[in-house]
Amino acid sequence: MEDKFIQGKSLIEWKRDYPLLNEIISTNEVFWFNPKNQRYNKAVRNISISEDNVKDAEERLIRFAPYIAKAFPETSKSKGIIESPIVEIPKMKGKVKKIFNRNIKGKLLIKCDNDLPIAGSIKARGGIYEVLKHAEDLAIKNGMLSLEDDYSIIDSEKFRNFFSKYSIAVGSTGNLGLSIGIISAKLGFNVTVHMSADAKEWKKNLLKSKGVNVVEHNSDYTKAVEEGRKEAASDPNSYFVDDENSLNLFLGYAVAAYRLKEQLDKMDIIVDDEHPLFVYLPCGVGGGPGGVTFGLKLVYGDNVHCFFAEPTHSPCMLIGMMTGLHDKVSVGDFGIDNITEADGLAVGRPSGFVGKTLENLLSGIYTVEDNELYRLLSLLIDTEDISLEPSALAGAYGPIKLFDEGYRYIENNNLKDKMENATHIIWSTGGSLVPKDIMKEYYKKGLSLL
Ligand SMILES: *Cc1c(COP(=O)(O)O)cnc(C)c1O
After folding, report:
1. DSSP character at residue 413
2. Tens digit of each residue's pLDDT (9 = 90 or more) over 253-276
3. What is the per-residue burial (b if ≥16 Cβ within 10 Å, else e) of 409-435?
4. Is the CB of 175 under 6 A from ligand 1?
5. Cβ atoms within 10 A of the Cβ of 348, count?
6. Less Cβ around it within 10 Å: N or C end of the chain?
7. Model-level pTM greater than 0.85?
8. Would you state the pLDDT for residue 1?
9. Which residues carry this modification: N6-(pyridoxal phosphate)lysine (predicted)?
10. In the chain, where does the domain assigned CATH 3.40.50.1100 lie?
11. Which ligand 1 atom sits closest to the C-alpha of 281?
């Protein structure tokens, strides 16, 4: 192992250049501060994606709102806008102080993407957006739709017949498959979801019940994506949702930031020079947390500090960003097994597109052990009655970590005197579709670890 070569350098050399790799390879928890993090105005100069792109995505979702409201009545209250609540969680904050012995200074909030309608996870943002965009492109190109139409006409036999001539494919560990599968089937597309071995049985069954073709692979996420890509490439009427490289997914996620700002404004929560905002986002391949981070930076610039969270056994974005190798490297190259209960985060190779886009905007990445996810899962149910899937708890570990090893970040960025004014947002990424009996098992496991 020690004399193994990775991208032209021996493991010994990699460890010498990046000593944190010793801990990462031993699957110990770490907190990495991104040394390439820059002032916002400087960092955006190197990024080709602009505010106009995100605004365009926001407008597209508004055009589709009448369709969504009609096709998914559960969204009628929000008039077809797919959005989640944000709430303060003071009881959880108190409990964290007791159990983890960490005093979180500032307000503690949770952004409940677990409650997003239709797909029950953060994938209801990017995944649904990308399929809607594809549907719009096809319909406009074929003279069936114009931008000025009331898009509720899409919920009809005429459109379903039209879309049934086209197919959509995706590779997933579970939740992206759910979101792409549900929206594509509803529109009338033929949809195939390639599921990795990590995918939970109930997620596959739910999709099959909605008429989605589910192909089960014995391999990990990267391989499932590759299979999906291959299959789609052989059919000109097939569209592949590329979780590793998709700009559209990224833009769908980024829209969340505008919506969040509206919510914080309504709650009279200030974010400015004296009131820093900290956001903690679970990271798999990177699109979800990356898109949200990009949007938040557009909105709040240097006043928002975004951290990604990864399982100790799947630290792909951490290794990719730290070494600068991005998608040229997988955790397996460093002998890490990519085995985690956090199925949404079980990704061994990060998105190079996301890693490079956020290279100068991300504050840092920490890793978390699976057992901590379960402990937090039970605590959050006990204190606030919020039920999340294990992956979604990775963000909840962030504030605990920040006021521990992460404190150096606060000191180095002269934030110490501002922490009483800070707001911390745990980005919860999934959970509302988890069957009750499975959630009970998760809860019991967490309790046994407390
Ligand atoms: C997909 C997912 C993430 C991470 O999103 P990526 O785009 O893969 O980084 C986090 N949590 C849950 C529950 C997810 O399903």
Report:
1. T
2. 999 999 999 999 999 999 999 999
3. bbeeeebeebbebbbbbbbbbbbbbbe
4. yes
5. 23
6. N
7. yes
8. 60
9. 123
10. 5-49+76-118+250-449, 122-246
11. 10
